[in-house]
């Protein structure tokens, strides 16, 4: 006998997305993993050009780097560009590291509080030490980058872990998938697993609790 499980609400679909992102954040945290702006810049370069930097204008791979200006230059067409030139971070006055930290904060908050619009621009302002206007704009851009279903460059930078493979017996969509992800998420937070049935060992006896 099989029981039909209710399909996911739009809030649950959104929540699933954030929990999946949460499970891919580095165990040590984004701050320690990318401890300087330079480390973040290197990460941006690695993610954008995994096979080596090529020119954004002519695609040549004959590209040099001016350390003092943190600028790449193309030896073929003379075009100059940086790690952020062709990205959502271009012209941003907020450091790359604060973009990364904002992404982590948004993922953590939205995975834990699926029905609340956290963190606010004020929260980000306080945590990152930037102006409210900058925090508000940053939140919007980072949320766009992280949004369902595909994440953008900032997401690719901070999500350093591959997703855990789904067991064969779990369908790729639907409530069982949601529950499987939620169990992993809650376990990673040290929360009690959310199960209808829990096996409890009392003395030598195994009890099934409902
Ligand atoms: Zn070029």
Low-confidence stretches: 196-210
- In spatial order, strands of the major sheet run 1-2-3
Number of helices: 8
Report the portion of residues in β strands: 5-15%
Domain Transposase zinc-ribbon: 36-80
Protein name: IS1595 family transposase
Organism: Antarcticimicrobium sediminis
InterPro entries: Transposase_Zn_ribbon
Task: List the SSEs and their pairings.
Layout: H1 10-22, H2 30-33, H3 37-48, E1 63-66, E2 71-74, E3 80-81, H4 96-112, H5 121-128, H6 132-146, H7 153-158, H8 175-189, E4 198-202, E5 205-209
The protein binds zinc ion (ZN).
The site of zinc ion (ZN) has 8 residues, from loops.
Summarize the structure.
With 210 residues, the chain is mainly α. The chain is 43% helix and 10% strand.
Task: Explain how this protein is built.
- It comes from Antarcticimicrobium sediminis.
- Pfam families: Zn_ribbon_IS1595.
- This protein is mainly α.
- It has a domain at 162-209.
- The protein has 8 helices and 5 strands, in the order αααβββαααααββ.
- It is globular.
- The two termini are 20 Å apart.
- Residues 196-210 have low confidence and may be disordered.
- Bound molecules: zinc ion (ZN).
- Zinc ion binds at residues 55, 57-58, 60, 74, 76-77, 79.
- Residues 55, 57-58, 60, 74, 76-77, 79 line the site of zinc ion.
């Amino acid at each position: 006998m099989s029981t039909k499980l209710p399909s996911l609400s739009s809030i649950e679909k959104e929540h699933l997305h954030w929990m999946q992102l949460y499970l891919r954040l580095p165990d040590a945290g984004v701050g320690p993993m990318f401890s300087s702006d330079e480390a973040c810049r290197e990460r941006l370069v690695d993610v954008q050009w995994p096979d080596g930097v090529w020119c954004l204008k002519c695609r040549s791979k004959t590209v040099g780097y001016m350390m003092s200006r943190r600028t790449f230059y193309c030896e073929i067409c003379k075009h100059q560009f940086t790690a952020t030139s062709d990205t959502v971070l271009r012209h941003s006055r907020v450091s790359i590291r604060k973009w990364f930290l904002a992404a982590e904060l948004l993922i953590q908050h939205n995975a834990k509080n699926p029905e609340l619009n956290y963190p606010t621009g004020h929260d980000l302002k306080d945590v990152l030490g930037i102006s409210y206007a900058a925090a508000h704009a940053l939140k919007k851009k980072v949320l766009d980058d992280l949004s369902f279903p595909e994440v953008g460059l900032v997401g690719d930078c901070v999500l350093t872990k591959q997703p855990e493979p789904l067991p064969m017996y779990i369908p790729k969509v639907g409530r069982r998938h949601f529950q499987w992800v939620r169990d992993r998420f809650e376990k990673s937070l040290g929360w009690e697993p959310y199960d209808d049935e829990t096996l409890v060992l009392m003395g030598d006896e195994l009890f099934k609790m409902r």
